[in-house]
Every structure is written in structure tokens, then in C-alpha cells.
Recover the amino acids of this structure.
């Protein structure tokens, strides 16, 4: 991996993404890796050290990135193919990862990608844009906020970001692939501007980082009440498969467990306010709910950050 990629990712991580998170994950024990590897839900059509591509349905694939490696992709994503186009979801952490996904899309569908949709601006979802463009020169779709935040200080990608096709930030956008449509739904909560990509047949929601599975989420740029609201709305869609931004593919029960965690964090924050505790004190005391005791990846700093995010929203910002 080049120094350029490292420095770019480092820059984005400092303001926006998951650098600490990656450090925690790379220190995870072997048993956690084995647990992760055992959580395939669908047939695996490609497997690399950095992730596996699962075939969710005819023309629909989901990438589950392995968080324990210095991975080419780092975040999850997907491929959706129709008669008139091939959509890749996310541009991943590195050019190599994004190029690999473009090549997989071409191999699996017989056609190069026509669209790349960015769910939000974090560097592990956008850093590989140049690699994504290198296979079939797909149009890149993102909300104006995602484009602008990704563009901040990111000169090496600005030529691509300047030509992004803007997604409506208020109303859903349909991507018509001829024999099937995807609906890109603008949301917020993980960041100021997130989108989900939703299919009705089969019912699949690509959630971006609004949803994490088997891993405690990163609240670094979150608006927690909006996050909870967005996830509850996604749950009401009652989809068969939810593709999280990080972690193995989720079903409805897994999404319910995730909602348990979000609610648990809110409860902890409200209790902290009632008892005059800081986010650090409340984070140190925080326990995951019973239903998620098997979640293998968490860190007290993340608990503090999550509770601090709620405290800020509720008018008790931390110093
Ligand atoms: Zn993110």
C-alpha cells in the first residue's frame, strides 16, 4: 500500500472515520476471527483475506469485509445487476479494494459497473474512488453533503468528486436497471447525510454505517436520535436481509439486537445526566445488553463516545 493511500486515509480517519476502531480490531483474538468466519448466510462466490462476497439472490451480492486484516475494502458493500446496468455500493477504503469489487461485478454479471453509490463520506467507504472508476468508468452517485465532506482536504480525489451525480437529499431516488429498480433513500444519523439502497424483490437493504452487526457502532459523527429513528424505519420495512456497514449480514432478529444496543446507549446517557456523571464515567460503567453478549468487538472508548454523543444532543456537551 502506498504512502499516499495511508496519508489520505489517515487524514480522513482523523476527522471522520474509524482509525481507532481499526486498531482495536487488529488486536482481536483468534477465536473472534473464527467466529466471524463462521457467519456466512449465503453461498460465497469469492473469498479473499480482506472479505467474502455472498450471493444474496439472483443478481444481488453482498461483500462482508473482514475487519481483522489490513484490508483492501474495510467496509461492506454490494453489487446489484439488472438488464440495463450494474450498481456497486460503496467505493471502499483503497483503490485495490474498489477495483477488486469492480472486477468481481464484471466477472459475475458479464458487464462492468455502470453506477457506484456512496452511502456516506467516511474514508473507509470513499477512499478507493479512483479504483472504482477504473473498471468501466461508472457514474458516481452521492448526496451533495457526502460529496462536499469527502472533498474536504482530499485533493487526490477531487477530480472525481467534482463530477459526482448528486442524489436528492430529501426524496428517494430510483435507479432503474430495466428489469429491477433500486431505491436510494436519504437518511441521517451515522453522519449528517447517509443513504440506504433498497430492493423489494428480494427484500434487501444496504444500510451503510447506519447499521453495524456483531460490532459496537462508531458514533464519531452521529446524531443519535436520528440514528435510532432511521434504524427503526428500516426495521419497519421488514426486509429479509440487512447488509450492515460493518459485520456479517443481518436478518430481522439481528437488527432487533442492534436496536437494543442503540436504546441501551440512550438509557445509559439519560441515567448519566440524572446522576451527574460524565461520558467517561458512564462509558466505564456501560454493559452491553444480554441479547448482544456475544458481540466480540467493543472497547470502552467507544462506549464513552456513544454516550458522549447523546449527552451532546441532550444539551450536556462534554469538555
Ligand atoms: Zn462510517
Amino acid at each position: 500500500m502506498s504512502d499516499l493511500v495511508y496519508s489520505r486515509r489517515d487524514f480522513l480517519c482523523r476527522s471522520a472515520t474509524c482509525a481507532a476502531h481499526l486498531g482495536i480490531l487488529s488486536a482481536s483474538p483468534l477465536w473472534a476471527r473464527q467466529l466471524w468466519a463462521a457467519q456466512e448466510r449465503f453461498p460465497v462466490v469469492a473469498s479473499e483475506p480482506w472479505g467474502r462476497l455472498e450471493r444474496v439472490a439472483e443478481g444481488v451480492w453482498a461483500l462482508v469485509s473482514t475487519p481483522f486484516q489490513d484490508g483492501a475494502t474495510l467496509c461492506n458493500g454490494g453489487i446489484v445487476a439488472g438488464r440495463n446496468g450494474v450498481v456497486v455500493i460503496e467505493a471502499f477504503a483503497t483503490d485495490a479494494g474498489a477495483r477488486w469489487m469492480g472486477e468481481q461485478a464484471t466477472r459475475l454479471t458479464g458487464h462492468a459497473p455502470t453506477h457506484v453509490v456512496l452511502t456516506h463520506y467516511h474514508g473507509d467507504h470513499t477512499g478507493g474512488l479512483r479504483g472504482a472508476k477504473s473498471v468501466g468508468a461508472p457514474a458516481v452517485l452521492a448526496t451533495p453533503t457526502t460529496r462536499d465532506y469527502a472533498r474536504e482536504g482530499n485533493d487526490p480525489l477531487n477530480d472525481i468528486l467534482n463530477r459526482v451525480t448528486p442524489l436528492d437529499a430529501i426524496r428517494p431516488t430510483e435507479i432503474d436497471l430495466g428489469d429491477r429498480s433500486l431505491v436510494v433513500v436519504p437518511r441521517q444519523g451515522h453522519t449528517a447525510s447517509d443513504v440506504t439502497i433498497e430492493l423489494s424483490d428480494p427484500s434487501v437493504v444496504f444500510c451503510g454505517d447506519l447499521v453495524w452487526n456483531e460490532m459496537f457502532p462508531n458514533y464519531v459523527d452521529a446524531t443519535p436520535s436520528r440514528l435510532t429513528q432511521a434504524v427503526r424505519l428500516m426495521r419497519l420495512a421488514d426486509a429479509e436481509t440487512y447488509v450492515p456497514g460493518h459485520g456479517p449480514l443481518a436478518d430481522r432478529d439481528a437488527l432487533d439486537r442492534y436496536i437494543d444496543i442503540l436504546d441501551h446507549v440512550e438509557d445509559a446517557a439519560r441515567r448519566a445526566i440524572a446522576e451527574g456523571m460524565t461520558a467517561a464515567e458512564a462509558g466505564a460503567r456501560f454493559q452491553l445488553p444480554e441479547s448482544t453478549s456475544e458481540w466480540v468487538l467493543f472497547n470502552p472508548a467507544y462506549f464513552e463516545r456513544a454516550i458522549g454523543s447523546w449527552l451532546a444532543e441532550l444539551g450536556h456537551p462534554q469538555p
Observations:
- The domain at 3-251 is CATH 3.60.15.10 (Metallo-beta-lactamase; Chain A).
